[in-house]
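REQUEST FORM: STRUCTURE PREDICTION
Request ID: SP-0412
Submitted by: Lab K.M.
Chain count: 1
Length (residues): 419
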Amino acid sequence: MKCIGTGSTSLFRHRARLVILLSLVAALALAGCAGRQGVGASESWSGVATQPGTNTAFVGTRDGRVIELLLDAGRNDRIIPRVGAIFDANERAESGNRVDAAFYGTPTIAGDRVYVGSYQGFVYSLAGLGSDQRMLADVGAFEIDGDNLAKGIAGDVIYADGALVIAAAEDTEKGRLYVLRADQLDLNTGPSRTERCRYPAGEQSGVGRMWTTPLVLDGTAYFGDLDRQLHAVDLETCQPVWDQPAELGGGIVATPVALNGKLYVGAFDRSFYQIDIGTGLATKQFEADRWFWASPATDGKLIYAPNLDGKLYAYDHQYPNTGGVIWTYDQEGDLEQLLAPPAIVEGKIVLASDSGIVTLLDPDGTRLRSLGNANDKVRAKLTVQGNTVYVRSLDEIVTAYEVSGDNFDEDWEFKIEGF
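STATUS: Completed
RESULT:
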């Protein structure tokens, strides 16, 4: 694998840059190569954000827009999606002289605000839910520190008890956790009032580069980095909770899941780990054939871990000493890589892969039905609202699927135009 040098910044300002996160080939190369500059986006993995009780959804795009989708019912009460308001980061003054604007993380809805982090290194607060004239207006913005050509936010902005929690890369090697005051970002009061704290503190060197979304649980953020460490940080003080970070055998981009006092996450050494939530002690549970990239999911009984080898591993946390994996699903032999986290809907598992196929599974690993658009890769987080699953593909198609018992049907499909 050949690393790209850093001699020409004009190369990285060109609009046809390689992908950092959203092309798996570029991501794998970057993980093993030092000294690369940040690059822009040619694809987007932003999922769909929805709010119960409304007819709106939001999705980020590879060209730096956040798009409102209006999900209005037409004839026969069928949803006919259309584009509503649009926020365009490229129209902001701060977007100049940087990598291209792009949104990788799924927007977060909290109250009347939409929060989203850009790969340019900005956290935006977009206001006006419920008011078409103010939708995605009243923009508050906070910029993380770092190299303008290498910093960025690849995961979701997490809202927790009035705080915004963001894992960010500040350059090609280091990252940092930021905790912001949501109300101050809404008012755009400025960085000194908006930032509550950061980890590590500003005068200290950052930890490993981050391409992840933190898990926030009981006032603590749990997140991994590419230096193979999993951190636990108190959100009030930004001080570490454990004596030292958990040491895994490979880089970590997945978000852990928590179950019965343990964290579970896979890493780039092909291993799946259990971490004691109280002490940070990590123990290897099993190995797969390739890297664990996507986040696992749990139904409270089993943990479902997708792998780049194309298999979904069902792990029973109650029997780790006997191997733990009770079944694997190999996509009926297709084995296209899995980069999208699975979703749990109505007690069933919804799985999407780089084949473009979306599959409904029983908890015992039996395939019930498969749908989708062949070769239309799915790498974004699947969003669940009730018995509806929203899937966004790399071809900029948003599809809504309905789960009812063992039935799995497409409700509607919408192509995001303008790329």
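NOTES: The longest helix spans residues 24-32.
Reviewed by: T.R.
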